[in-house]
Structures are given as structure tokens and as C-alpha cells.
Amino acid sequence: MLFTAAIQLAMAGLALGARTPRAAAVSNPSGQKVTSSSAFSSGAGNNNNANIYDGTGNAGSDTYRCYYGGWESFPPVSEWIEFDAMWNYSKNAMAEACADLGIGSCSNGAGAFGAGNSGEQTGLIWNAIQQVAQTSLVDHRFILATILQESIGCVNVCPTTNPDPSQPDNPGLMQSDGGVTFVGNSASNSAQQSSITQMVIDGTQGTALGDGLVQCINQYGNIYEASQRPRD
Predict the structure, then answer these.
(1) Which end of the chain is more exposed for a tag (fewer CB within 10 A), N or C?
(2) Which residue range forms the structural domain that includes residue 32?
(3) What are the backbone angles phi and psi of residue 112, rounded to the nearest 5°?
(4) Could you give the CA distance from residue 103 to residue 158 in angstroms, rounded to a whole number?
């Protein structure tokens, strides 16, 4: 089973509707972090993202269950899968992600502009998640869930074009507000790592053109509302 009920329900928008973040300039994005005390109680904030064995250790059962009501009705952090297991269950999907999205020209409707992911590229995503999680204090499982929801982890994912020309497009692994697009398969390993890390920063800590997970977590204090409701 690729996805966990606890985290992926937050991202799939099954109960509260898809998140439509309101574009708002974020000052010094790479310095943004979770500060809400309620976020650390609910699991949205994590002071120990270095611990990759921080959950139940398994993906649970492959079943569908409808959750509804307030965010308190959704699975608590005590029921979330551990990051290491979540990652291992997701690696095959990330390896096939670009092919599954369809490789070609973004302007012609393709989902990805290049092949991927190589095993090395998937490893670079791990590095980026762990680095940004420890800086931002966003739980690393929430970052990974967002990546899986928005791009399946395809590094070469095409941007989503905003129908409102006054608003930024949504590029990168987390389909951020006006962030960066991947540097490309032909770039050096270090350049690819920098590019992937920046995509994760954009989606997690925000950009000069819009919010990331940090800003929404600080407003709502939990992943379920933060992933699906616009920030005031």
C-alpha cells in the first residue's frame, strides 16, 4: 500500500475540499518554520524529524474509510505511519512517476518534461525532505505526502498553469506558488540536489509569491485543515 490513511487523506481532499492557498508574499522563505504550539500537539510540527522511525511502522490495511467532520475526527498522530516505512512504500511509485504522468512538452499537455526518476534522483528527494523538515519543523511525513499528492515525486513534473493570469503558476515537486522547476536530468548531481531542495523549500516554507505548508500550519495548527483550506 503506497499511501497511509492518516496522511494521504489530508492531501487527497476527500473530506474538506482541495486546498486553494491564497497567494501571499513570504519574506525570507528558507527561514520560515512552524511556531504554532497546537501544531506540535497535533503532529503537524515535529521537533525531531531526524527520527525516521516515528510512527506505527506499517502502512495499515488497504481499505477505504470515509472520515468527516472536524479535523479532530481524522486519525491522530499516534496512528500515523513512520517516515521510513512511508518512504519505502512510495519508492516504486516515484520511480515510475514521470512515465505515468506522460513525458513530452508541457505546453502540449504532457505531465512531465523529462524521464525519471532515477534511483539517485529519488535519493536526492529524501535528502531534501529531511533537510527542509529539520529546518522548517514541518513533519517530514506531511512533506512527503504533499509531494506524492502533487507530483507523485516526479522531479521533471510540468507546472500547473494558473487560469488567472494575475496569479503565479504552480511548478515543482510540490506545485508551489511561483517557485522553481527542476534543473533537468543533464545537470550535475550537485545542481540536481540544489534544485530538488529548492522545490521542497518552495512548497514547504513558501515563496515570494505565495504560502507553503508552514504558513498554513501556523494558521490552522493541524495538517488536515492546513492542506485543504485557504489561509486568511
Answers:
(1) C
(2) 5-226
(3) -140, 145
(4) 9
